[in-house]
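job 3f2a | input accepted
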Amino acid sequence: MANLNDLSEQEIKQNLLEQYKNFDIKIFDTLSSTNDFAKELINSDSFTDGTTIIANSQTCGRGRFARTFFSPANTGIYFSTILKKSLPIKYIFLITFISAIAVCRAITKLTNLNPKIKWINDIYLNDKKICGILVENICGFNNMKSKAIVSGIGINISTEIFPEDIQDKAGSIMCNELSRNKLIAEILNNIFDLSEDIYSKKIIEEYKSLSFVLNKEISYTKDNKTYTATAIDINDNGNLIVKDKNNTIFILNCEDISINLA
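job 3f2a | predicted structure (262 res):
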């Protein structure tokens, strides 16, 4: 398969909404991690709201629980955007939610496909993971609110060969006409639009409507033990509500879950 179009700051900005066209867009051929680069900018106060770091490939892309994120050249998008937002720490999860919604909206608009969200930060298409999101908070002076928040997003667009340990779980969008630049711009438009009303109940409702896990049997690990339950809801704190076979309700916070596909 031919490589996708080159990453272009000009084309990305052409597709940004007017109020976001002044975003600082930094494009690199290779970085170890776009999130790490973004955090360096924040720690040195060398950033503005909307500063976005994009790499054509990553050598040390990462996700939750220190897992690696496979980031080969030319076949995906790997970027981190900085939201200069002071949020109470307990609401940082909302940035993960709006990022996931933004990705789903953008893919649907540009491809007519219907991706879904696997709680809390993965995007699935045709029962395969096509996107991972890693949101990281940089605390302010008193550690009670954020100084800035990094939303890191990696999407497999035309990746066909994956490492052996993920080849049964990972997938790609596989849309030849999809522009990486337009997809990045559309995601940014959605993230920053949604962040304008970050506490709106509509965010959690839309997140739930896009859920890949609700009403499904899932497995989760807690205290080194694995349990099975049915996902029944997502509450206003971003927790996954599950019910076991004895009808006992449990609240999951940040546990790793897997979906038991029939």
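job 3f2a | The first helix runs from residue 9 to 14.
job 3f2a | closed
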